[in-house]
Design a protein that fits this description.
Blueprint lengths: L2 H23 L2 E7 L6 H11 L5 E2 L2 E9 L4 H13 L5 E4 L3 H14 L3 E3 L17 E3 L4 H14 L4 E7 L2 H16 L3 E8 L7 H10 L3 E5 L6 H9 L5 E4 L6 H7 L7 E4 L15 H15 L6 H22 L7 H12 L4 E2 L4 E2 L15 E6 L2 E4 L4
Parallel strand pairs: 1-3, 1-4, 4-5, 5-6, 7-8, 7-9, 9-10
Antiparallel strand pairs: 2-3, 11-14, 12-13, 14-15
Helix pairs in contact: 2-11, 3-4, 5-6, 8-9, 11-12
């Protein structure tokens, strides 16, 4: 053995010695799959950043986070979850960033008996709570909750007719369904429906049809930076009605991409987006500001993002569920512990987080109510709390 080989072996042995205690102490494993690249990267990046802020030890038990990128691809999201469960032996999975991938992951959760907490919004991820969905939870607000707030605001603003343009996937179709129902309840008629893809580069044809229908308002049902495309195109085509967005647009990157075309748009959002502007009486303000302070201390002032908040809240759910799961005597890395963790998440009550107050139950795996929403308007390129809307 020459000197160089000896040095390499010594370094390797030292590295293994250092690594072994870390491996042994990482008794609880949390798998994470997110859309850190692809069309939903503006969602996945702040979610990924937030993982570094989550607790690494609870009740004396080390927690290891294994983070994968699914590139906003449903097939990769499912592949990642199977790898996390089969190869990494995780106790719970958080993800993914968007609805289509999350819906596909639910089947894996049920098949493998692994609790998952989605950071995507569609209610179908957790409703109804039966079959595989008994293992699925989520932290974003249900679309119905936000659609109701939008319909209330539209009615106050005198909107009688509504145009709609949304993604050609489960997110867009889910929003079309809940918004049509919420609008109808307020006497608002949906008069024009268009769709577009997350990766589309033009929506000129769809926008011309929407403008021709002359609705009082138009809702863009998308998430992340792709929502800026129809928003800007409608402005450039001279649309003068009221522009609405879903909470999927509550992202500073949207303001950056959209620029002045975003001014005047109205959307429902989690309290985190405007936490500083909320009255002290708001039950979510204090807990939202805790996350905001931690995130901006690491990533810079003004970097806070509601999608990162969904990851923070998922981490809170896991952290809250770990102590009661451990008290059952079940050992991390076993089916019994995964079951105990699932049961503990389902029993969480009155947990203030960054986006609302969670009250889970056997029939509600989203757990949020009206405290998880506020109305926001973009004024001079800034998110502005609208307490009267």
């Amino acid at each position: 053995m020459n000197l160089n080989q000896s040095i390499r072996l010594s370094v390797l042995a030292g590295a293994l010695t250092l690594a072994l205690p870390m491996i042994a102490s990482a008794q609880i494993k949390v798998g994470v799959t997110l859309s850190s690249t692809g069309p939903a990267a503006s969602l996945g990046i702040p979610e990924r950043n937030t993982v570094s802020l989550l607790p690494t030890e609870i009740d004396g038990q080390k927690i290891e986070y294994i983070v994968l990128d699914d590139s906003t691809d449903m097939t990769i999201a499912v592949k990642n979850m199977r790898k996390l469960v089969a190869d990494d032996k995780v106790d719970v999975v958080i993800g993914t960033s968007v609805t289509p991938g999350s819906l596909a992951m639910v089947d894996v959760a049920g098949e493998t008996g692994t609790p998952m907490i989605s950071v995507a919004a569609n209610a179908k991820i957790v409703e109804p709570v039966e079959g595989a969905r008994k293992w699925a939870f989520k932290t974003p607000q249900n679309d119905q909750l936000m659609a109701g707030a939008l319909a209330d605001t539209m009615a106050k603003q005198g909107v009688k007719t509504l145009g709609f343009i949304g993604y050609t996937d489960a997110y867009g179709e889910g929003w079309l369904s809940v918004m049509t129902e919420a609008a109808k309840a307020k006497g608002i008629k949906v008069v024009s429906i268009e769709r577009y893809g997350r990766t589309d580069t033009s929506v000129t044809g769809q926008v011309l049809k929407l403008v021709a229908a002359k609705p009082d308002g138009i809702l863009v049902a998308g998430s992340g930076t792709p929502v800026a495309l129809p928003q800007s195109e409608l402005k450039s085509r001279g649309y003068k009605g009221i522009m609405y967005q879903t909470h999927g647009a509550a992202n500073n990157d949207v303001l950056r991409v959209c620029g002045k075309d975003c001014n005047g748009m109205i959307l429902p959002a989690g309290p985190l987006l405007v936490a500083d502007q909320l009255p002290d009486s708001n039950p979510v303000k204090k807990s939202a500001l805790v996350y905001k302070a931690k995130y901006e201390a690491k990533y810079g002032a003004g970097t806070i993002n509601t999608f990162g908040g969904h990851m923070w809240d998922a981490g809170l759910l896991v952290a809250t569920a770990i102590p009661p799961a451990l008290k059952t005597g079940a050992k991390p890395g076993t089916p019994e512990f995964r079951q105990a963790l699932r049961d503990a998440i389902e029993q969480i009550k009155n947990l203030p987080a960054s986006q609302g107050v969670f009250n889970m139950s056997a029939t509600d795996h989203a757990g949020l109510d009206e405290r998880a929403r506020v109305m926001v308007k973009v004024v001079d390129g800034k998110w502005t709390y609208q307490p009267d809307q």
